[in-house]
User: What shape does this take?
Amino acid sequence: MNEIILKLKSIYDKYKIIIILAGSILLLLVPVIFPKSYIMGIICRILLYIILAGGLNVINGYSSQFCIGYAGFFCIGAYTEAILALRLKINFWLLLPIAGIVTAIAGLLICLPTLKLKGKYLALVTLGFSEIVRLIALNWSSLTGGPMGLKGIPVPKIFGIEFKNSLSYYYIFLFLVAIFLFVTRRVINSRIGRAWMSIREDEQAARSLGVDTSMYKALNFMYGAFWAGIAGAAYAPYTRYIDSTFFTLDEGFNILSMAIIGGMGTLIGPVAGSIVVNLLTELLRPISEYRLVAYAILIIAMMWLRPQGLFGASKSILAGKEIVKKARKAEKEAAA
Amino acid sequence: MLKIQNLSVNYGYIAAVKNISLEVNEGEIVTLIGGNGAGKTTTLMAISGLVPKASGTITFKGVNITKMSPDKIVKMGICHVPEGRRIFPSLTVYENLMAGTIGNPSLKKPQIKQLLEKNYELFPRLRERMKQSGGSLSGGEQQMLAIARGLMMDPDIIMLDEPSLGLAPIIVEEIFDLILKIRNAGKTVLLIEQNASMALSIADRGYVIETGNVVLEGKGRELLANPDVRKAYLGG
Assistant: This one.
């Protein structure tokens, strides 16, 4: 597996510009290639979950805080968009960042009292948080429509074009995924990203190096929550109807399984995870409820065969193996 | 430069450090020696703000840093290389070094490059292993990486916590040579050691700590010749 990744990487490095150009043209033409709304629906879902799994990966994979209640943030983002769009008729494009910021503030509120918690304890708190958010959405009928949900969420418009089905909405998701990957890549390679990784590796050592761990951990949670909010805000007008059943714990586990299967701590991991899990969901649709069993088996098998996930080998370990390989090759050549 | 007055640190009801006072002047190598549990590491952790202090004041360059948070203390120019190396095993050597710059946001890219170059010169082995993961280095190399990582924040004083821990004697000598080189490059060094003879032989001044108290202080060579020290730490 590592060899394959390395080989792909070397090919990619060689023809970088051509691959990126061809890839982006191909991505733009997807709705033309698959004009069926069913297939586009699946592709839209894959893109949505890339943002969600990617955002979760920033929390779980880069700073090793363990959040499993990610659906709660998703829920806050979706309801913020839906309520503000229905009540105050605010433009969708404005609501995207607003929902993101509201969710980031929610992320800050939950992480402030939990900055000293780690691992399973933090996981439990986020689990509770997710359920609390869902129950509020279910019971605050005057604001959220309660069990009836919110319907008739206006579709986004730009230059007279209405994004009312999956064929056109695809471009909104694609745009968001592109921004997400670009921004996250920049953040991960910046001082902030390095601080997160140093906290993941050894929190005490990070503190001795002068990393303000609480500040960076809070920032990390807020960044992850921010993208869940954006995803939620993009999701609400896509389905045009939301209720609390969309944001159960199962949803959170679903996102988590994508991040784990794809591999945490890499940018490409959640992308792969989202593709694999969503395609699997469609393929296994005939066996309906048993597909959760299939996920469980997949996760257990992954833990055995590739605990770091499909693409989870961190860059550093890959680089290390590359050097070992080179050294062996040189040794062989010297012997011959 | 660094002045500690009547410092006490408690862990619960255990007094780990009792009323320690010591002073480090600019350009010196000062060593704290003592057996296990004497309070050496705790003293360092208290200086860099990693443990709460029960009493006492710490001033650095005339500024009271007693109640500062660890990240602010680092920004003042105090670097702490923790005991047991504590490098980031799955990050590469390069990434480890870059992680050292996080604590000092005043560093700009060209300066970071310069520091990196300086460190590679000081530790040529790290240049060879730049892309290797930190965990794949040998113990001595990891120690060098930990020191280099600390130097990447361009500190005025570097506090080393048992750099010889678990290393072969020949590597220990190399590490101590490096410490001298670091001092000659203009840094002040506060060194904690169990290897008293090595530490005292390179130190300008030394303090002997026993169960949380300073029992002796003096010039490095004087302490090395002191019969009490010889008996307790150097095997007669």
Q: What stands out?
A: The radius of gyration of chain A is 21 Å. Residues 37-249 of chain A form one domain. Chain A touches chain B through 25 residues (CB under 8 Å).
